[in-house]
Amino acid sequence: MQKYKKANDIKVGVVGYGGAFNMGKQHLQQMLAAGMTPLAVTEVDAGRLVAARADFPGIETYPTVGAMLKKSRVDLVVIITPHNTHAQLTLQCLRAGRHVVCEKPLAITTAEVDAMIAAAKKSGVILSTYHNRHWDGCILEAVERIKKQKVIGDIIRIECHMGGYNLPRDWWRSSRTVSGGILYDWGVHLLEYSLQLIDAELTEVSGFSHHGFWAPLTKWKKDTIEDEGFAVVRFKGGQWLTLAISSIDSKPKDGRLEITGTKGTYVLDGNDHTIYRHADGEAVTVKKNNRADATHKYYENVRDHLVKGKPLTITGEWSRRPIHILDLAVRSAKAGKALTVKYV
Fold first, then answer.
1. Domain 134-293+323-340 of CATH type 3.30.360.10
2. How far apart are CA 253 and CA 158, in angstroms?
3. What are the CA-CA distances from residue 86 to residues 34, 112, 164, 205, 333 (Å)?
């Protein structure tokens, strides 16, 4: 793999500069803050290319990925497009010898991720997923309190949940074909949190889903995401994990994660966490704020890997674990039985 003498030698570009969340601009700004050099933007909407040139005067703009790869000296490409396009676009860039950071989820199926990892190795370039939430303050706090301080003893189970009672919006994330399903959006974040806390191999995944309540009222009809998706993950160490994402939950649970251990329960939320324990036979509840987010460390780590050879935190193999769970959960729900994992 090519090493760079200094950070600004790394020329970066993005594929996708859509107006939703303005993620193209955010990625380029974050890479610039890490010392890398914004060079190119690819976007099918000509109006958004105008916006990119206004945001980054002098930046190269291209209507297609092929044109960018042919004409630009970009070293690192960030893919910011709908989920079902990630694999194809990432493979195109990897095979052209460019480093790739892909928005999460990395892909929809395990097979797609396998192909991406193989292509990166063959070309001698890096493949990473933009798991900036790996450095969210809430999970940094949880790792310190649960894994290092053992405030709730040994982990028995983790329950991940998010949702409410609402009609899916009329955009691509509400399409099962395009998004992968209801579990893929926030689910990949919650799984990535959880896999930082449980140090054990995966053994099997069971998936469950309900579909058809909201679908007639949406533009996607039969292709609308599930009303609710649910997964159960077993680990070799005896722990288990559940993931529930719902749009028909009239009583959503508190927090994003509820981690139950032998000595207490830890409820993780975005800004704070609550620990429930028993002391001298009495219930004790402690609620504290989480530490600050450190999501800037994502691109700093990518930079340090390319310039200094430091280990890459979010590798393709690390990114594959949550995708493997999601893929198996969808397939299990269709098959009506638990499925054994391929990658532990």
1. yes
2. 13
3. 24, 9, 28, 24, 24
Strand order in the sheet with 228-235: 282-289, 272-279, 265-268, 257-261, 155-163, 240-246, 228-235, 202-210, 339-340
Whole-number pLDDT of residue 3: 79
8 Å CB contact between 178 and 82? yes
Identity of the amino acid at 175 = S
Q: Residue 233 — pLDDT band, cuts 50, 70, 90?
A: very high
Q: What's the confidence (pLDDT) of residue 19?
A: 79
Q: Please give the pLDDT value at position 21.
A: 85
CATH 3.40.50.150 fits 7-130, yes or no: no
pLDDT for residue 279 is more than 90? no
pLDDT for residue 52: 97
Question: What is the radius of gyration, based on Cα positions, of the chain?
Answer: 21
Question: Which pLDDT value is given to residue 281?
Answer: 74
Within 10 Å of residue 6's Cβ, how many Cβ atoms? 10
Domain boundaries along the sequence of the chain? 7-130, 134-293+323-340
Write the secondary structure of the chain as one string of H (helix), E (strand) and C (coil). Answer: CCCCCCHHHCEEEEECCCCCCCHHHHHHHHHHHCCCEEEEEECCCHHHHHHHHHHCCCCEEECCHHHHHHHCCCCEEEECCCHHHHHHHHHHHHHCCCEEEECCCCCCCHHHHHHHHHHHHHHCCCEEECCHHHHCHHHHHHHHHHHHCCCCCCEEEEEEEEECECCCCCCHHHEHHHHCCCCCHHHHHHHHHHHHHCCCCEEEEEEEEECCCCHHHCCCHHHECCCEEEEEEEECCCCEEEEEEECECCCCCCCCEEEEECCCEEEECCCEEEEEEEECCEEEEEEEECCCCCCCHHHHHHHHHHHHCCCCCCCHHHHHHHHHHHHHHHHHHHHCCCEECCCC
